[in-house]
Design goal:
single chain, alpha/beta, Rossmann fold, 2 domains, two-stranded parallel ribbon, 8 helices, 13 strands, globular
Length: about 300
Amino acid sequence: MAVYRGRFAPSPTGPAHLGTARSALIGWLRARAAGGAFVLRMEDLDRPRVRPGAAEEMLSDLRWLGLDWDEGPDVGGPFGPYTQSERLGRYHEVLMELEALGQTYPCTCSRKEIAEIASAPHGEEGPVYPGLCRDGPRHPKREPATRFRMPEAPTFVDGFAGEIRVDVAGDFVIHRKDGVFAYQIACVVDDHDMRITEVLRGDDLLSSTPRQIALYRALGWEVPDFFHVPLVLGDDGQRLAKRHGAIAIAELREAGWSAEALVGKLAHGAGLTPSDAPVSAAGLVERFDPSSLRREPASW
């Protein structure tokens, strides 16, 4: 049986917040309870949104909470680099492999054009691409993006959410016309190269999973297990964000919270403890039971 390898892959676009801390805590507990490895990776491909210094601050905040990692951008490891902006050459290799396999095609359609096609079905992520450029670019003079030829969306069994079926998927962009690699391909390449055995993340990414499974299969790679946990919501029922006030870990620390108090509240909100009494992250490892995780989103 393969040794468990989990990962946490935040984007350094701002300070670590409660949603970041909760996902990291659950992922860390799952890896440590399994006696496996915990990998930290920085997903910084969206360069205009990356905030200088945010990655270092995030690592500091996670360590303050009592979390550690076996591999990562600051500690190294056998499958690095662990920062996506340092892995562009690898993504290009895989893009060329998919092209050679006939799994991609150039697309010159704009988002506006796709959105204006009244007959195009809509999925959770917006209009589903109707394949207009599958047989050749509609606008040859435009700079193309690269789309993956998506087969019928695969059904999969999530370790927490159960059987997942996505009715509509559609061909999707894996390399933007501005040269940026899309999340779907970068995530798959990284998790494969880093030998991740289970992808634990927020359930807002459930709809991305069939696309990623299709990429794994097209490349002939083993598909990891998936485990999607509910998000942390604000008072308005929406995903917790900066608009909800002082929710950054650093802000809570400055306001007088201890790491144990915050871990206790996060663990209780996730269903891992009977009360929100202060507790260290290490103190939760032996009693961690993923079946006790709450099915509904946590609120703050």
